[in-house]
Structure formats: structure tokens, C-alpha cells
Write a structure and sequence with these properties.
By secondary structure, this protein is α+β, with helices and mostly antiparallel strands. The chain has 12 helices and 20 strands. A 6-stranded mixed sheet has the order 1-2-6-3-7-19. Strands 9, 11, 15, 16 and 17 form a 5-stranded antiparallel sheet that branches. The radius of gyration is 27 Å and the shape is globular. Keywords: Cytoplasm, Hydrolase, Metal-binding, Signal, Zinc. This is N-acyl-aliphatic-L-amino acid amidohydrolase. One of its GO terms (molecular function) is aminoacylase activity. Its EC number is 3.5.1.14.
Length: 458
């Protein structure tokens, strides 16, 4: 017999025995607790298939707008590109002239191979251990909903919290394919300029350890295609400078460089985000035939594509010289031109300075973030450079501090992987952490320094 059945029977008997008595039965919350509702909302968001190449952006937007309405948040739908809605929510502070806080997340997720998952990737099933399996559970629908749940907590009538600074929450499209139709256009827009943003929080990574990871910068992509040419020849002939021979020499040179960078990581001398990573993405060569490739003909050209990621602390100009002189030298009939980059993002801003956010006492937001996490009984690891790319770079390019943070400790890193999951207790803990962060950020008022203070500092 369930608890509900037992209580219903007791209530019915009391009503029959004491018909003139009004009976109020209070439930202890176990049947429909706040945590159950929170997890249910998370599951509903995860169940919306926003995977590329055909993300259902409209359904995701409708869901976010419904949540905004339940929280009495101002909402705005922006479409910098038709069919790709960007949802912007606003909680106005009591001092709206102060620089605002932006909580950014993306609604899209990467594709899946459902047959390689132990649970359907868009069912958001919870196993006996409390793990929620779904694409986007780590990257990064969790963070987007945690923002809203933290606001829900703070707006609770028993809380009485009122932000001094205005809080914005943005749900952007297309991050997984570069963010060009989402965050990039948003950061350049008049709407964004008028928001007067002082700090941005964006996504980070899970931590397998018992601490949270904070990211102050990220590696920038350089997607390179190297092309080798040579005279075609009979498959049995040996001669110098064939297209395939020249390309293989380049690939070996790239491999040695990759190994030297990876050795620094494996030796513990540098973190993954602090080295230049190079991975071959494709190899294209050969003369096609109806049954495959012509086997007795050496091809006249061959290509290889490389995904290169450069941290802002590296010498990008030196890397480009290496590419031109060692990886794709003209002396080996190799071609390399800047135009051959499929994507190239500079690690420097328009003033030639590395694109990064201060991660010491010079940046009060960093100190506030660390303090708020500790106050919520969380631990913080050392500052890191994000090993891949996120939308945070578009805000840093505007000169705005942006910090990558996803509150997932004791969690394997599974973004873009099969069987991506997040434990429900870790998800709920992350909401508590964001409550602490928003209290600290939205209540922060910088003390204006007078002339005497500046003289003392100098």
C-alpha cells in the first residue's frame, strides 16, 4: 500500500466518523517535493531535441519563455538570423545604472549516435544511482536551468532578496557550430551595448575531483588545410617529391610537435589548456574509381586538415612561421596561405593584448566568485585556460571579463561523449552554488576611490 493510499483511507474514515469536523492533512513534501519539481523541469528541457544539424530552437525558446513567465522575468526574443531565436531575460536591479550581470548559456547540443547510448539521449532517464542521461546534461542545458532555478530560489517570497545590479540571462543558439549566428552577433549588437554588462558567466567543464574548475581564457581555433602537389606517376615508379611523400613528411613534422606539447601535459608541467593542441581531422588523397581508388596511379595532389587550438599565452606568430617553414614549405611543393584556414581566431584583441580575464585580486569578480563558491561549501581548483572554445570569447573581445564555470564536481567529463550524464544531487548542489554567486554578484558595489587613495597605490 502506498503512502498516498493509506492517507486517503484515513481521511475518508475520519470524514465518515466526524462529518462536522474540518480536517486539514499536511504532507511532509516527500510526494511532490521542490527537488522533484526542479529535476522534472530539467528533464523537460533535456527532452527537447536541439541537436545539430536540425535543432528545434523554437520548442526550446517556448520552454524558456514559459519558465521566465513563471518567474515574472522580463523577456525578449531576438533573431539576428531568422529561425535562430536568442532568448534574453531580465531581472531589474534596484540600481540599474550599475554595470549588469550576464548569465549566458547555449540551447543547442551536438549530434548523437543513439545506438551507442545505454539510455535514449533525449529521454532524460534517471538510473538507480541518480544519474540523468541525456545529451546536454553537461553541455550545457544544466547551467541554463540552474541559472533559472537559482533565481527562482532568490525570488521566493520568503527570501526577500532584491538585486542591486540588474541580472540578465541569455539563451543563445549555434554555440556548437561556432556561435557566429548567436553570441557573436549578440555581443556586437546595440541591444548588448545598452545592457552595460560588467561581468559574464559562461560554461566551464565538469571536474572528476571534489572541486570546481574556473576558466579565465580559452584556446582559439586555427583550422588548417595543407595541400601538397606533385607530378602523377605510375604506381610502380620511385621518384622524389610526390604529393603523398611530401604530405607524409608534413604529417610527421606535425606529429612530432604534437607529441612535444602532449609530453608537457603528461609530465604535469602544463595543463591541457596551456599548450597548443594539434589533431589531424581528415586526409584526402587518391584518384577515385568506380570500385574505390586507382591503385596503379600516384596522385598529383593530397590534402590534410588539422584542428589546431592556441592558448592566449602562446606565441601565435611563431606558430604561423612554423607552419609556413616546416609544415608546409614551398620547397616541397606545399601550399599554405592564410586564406586556407577554414577558421582562424586570433588570441589577441584589437590592441594586440592576449584575450583573457584577470584571475587575481585585480579582478573583483574573480574574488567574489571564489568566495561565493566557498560560502556554498564548494572547493575551487587553480585558474585554468579552457582547452576548447566557448561563446565567452565574444564577450572578452568586447573588453568584458568573462569566466567559464559549470558547477559539476565529482563528475566524469562527458561533453560530446556517448552516455553523457549528470547526477541529480550534483545538479541540485550546483543551484545552491549559483544562489550564493548571484547574491554576491548582484549585491556588489565598488567603493569609489578618491585622489588620495590613488596616490597611495601609486
Amino acid at each position: 500500500m502506498t503512502t498516498m493510499t493509506f492517507i486517503s483511507i484515513v481521511a475518508l474514515l475520519l470524514l465518515l466518523l466526524l462529518p462536522s469536523t474540518i480536517i486539514i492533512i499536511a504532507f511532509d513534501g516527500d510526494l511532490d517535493s521542490d527537488s522533484d519539481s526542479i529535476i522534472s523541469r530539467f528533464q523537460r528541457y533535456l527532452q527537447i531535441d536541439t541537436s545539430h544539424p536540425s535543432p528545434d530552437y523554437q520548442q526550446a525558446a517556448d520552454f524558456i519563455l514559459s519558465q521566465a513567465s513563471s518567474l515574472s522575468l522580463e523577456s525578449q526574443t531576438l533573431e539576428f538570423v531568422k529561425g535562430k531565436p536568442l532568448i534574453l531575460l531580465k531581472w531589474t536591479g534596484t540600481s540599474p545604472h550599475l554595470p549588469s550581470i550576464l548569465l549566458n548559456s547555449h540551447t543547442d547540443v551536438v549530434p548523437v549516435e543513439p545506438h551507442k547510448w545505454s539510455h535514449p539521449p533525449f529521454h532524460a532517464q534517471i538510473n538507480s544511482g541518480g544519474n540523468i542521461y541525456a545529451r546536454g546534461s553537461q553541455d550545457m542545458k544544466c547551467v541554463g536551468l540552474q541559472y533559472l532555478e537559482a533565481i527562482r530560489n532568490l525570488k521566493n517570497k520568503d527570501s526577500g532578496f532584491q538585486p542591486i545590479r540588474t541580472i540578465y540571462v541569455s539563451f543563445v543558439p549555434d554555440e556548437e557550430i561556432g556561435g557566429h549566428d548567436g553570441a557573436e552577433l549578440f555581443a556586437k549588437s546595440k541591444v548588448f551595448h545598452e545592457m552595460n554588462v560588467g561581468i559574464v558567466l559562461d560554461e566551464g567543464l565538469a571536474s572528476p575531483e571534489d572541486y570546481y574548475r574556473l576558466f579565465y581564457a580559452e584556446r582559439c581555433p586555427m583550422w588548417l588545410v595543407i595541400k601538397a602537389t606533385g607530378a602523377p606517376g605510375h604506381g610502380a615508379k620511385l621518384y622524389d617529391n610526390t604529393a603523398m611523400e611530401n604530405l607524409m613528411k608534413s604529417i610527421e613534422s606535425v606529429r612530432r610537435f604534437r607529441a612535444s606539447q602532449f609530453d608537457l601535459v603528461k609530465a604535469g608541467l602544463k595543463a591541457e589548456g596551456e599548450v597548443i593542441s594539434v589533431n589531424m581531422a581528415f586526409l584526402k588523397a587518391g584518384t577515385p574509381s568506380p570500385t574505390g581508388f586507382v591503385m596503379n596511379l600516384q596522385p598529383s595532389e593530397a590534402q590534410a586538415g588539422f584542428d589546431i587550438r592556441v592558448p592566449p599565452i602562446a606565441d601565435q606568430a611563431s606558430l604561423e612561421r612554423r607552419i609556413a617553414e616546416e609544415w608546409a614549405p614551398a620547397s616541397r611543393n606545399m601550399t599554405f596561405e592564410s586564406g586556407q584556414f577554414k577558421q582562424k581566431v586570433s588570441v589577441y584583441d584589437e590592441n594586440g593584448k592576449p584575450i583573457l580575464t584577470g584571475h587575481d585580486s585585480s579582478n573583483p569578480w574573480w574574488s567574489l566568485l571564489e568566495g561565493a563558491i566557498l560560502k556554498a561549501n564548494g572547493k575551487v581548483g587553480k585558474p585554468e585556460i579552457f582547452p576548447a572554445s566557448t561563446d565567452a570569447r565574444y564577450f572578452r573581445l568586447r573588453g568584458i571579463p568573462a569566466i567559464g564555470f559549470s558547477p559539476m564536481a565529482n563528475t566524469p567529463i562527458l561533453l560530446h561523449d556517448h552516455n553523457e550524464f549528470l547526477n541529480k544531487e550534483e545538479y541540485l548542489k550546483g543551484i545552491e552554488v549559483y544562489v550564493s554567486i548571484l547574491k554576491a554578484f548582484a549585491s556588489f558595489v565598488e567603493v569609489e576611490k578618491d585622489a588620495a587613495t590613488y596616490r597611495d597605490e601609486l
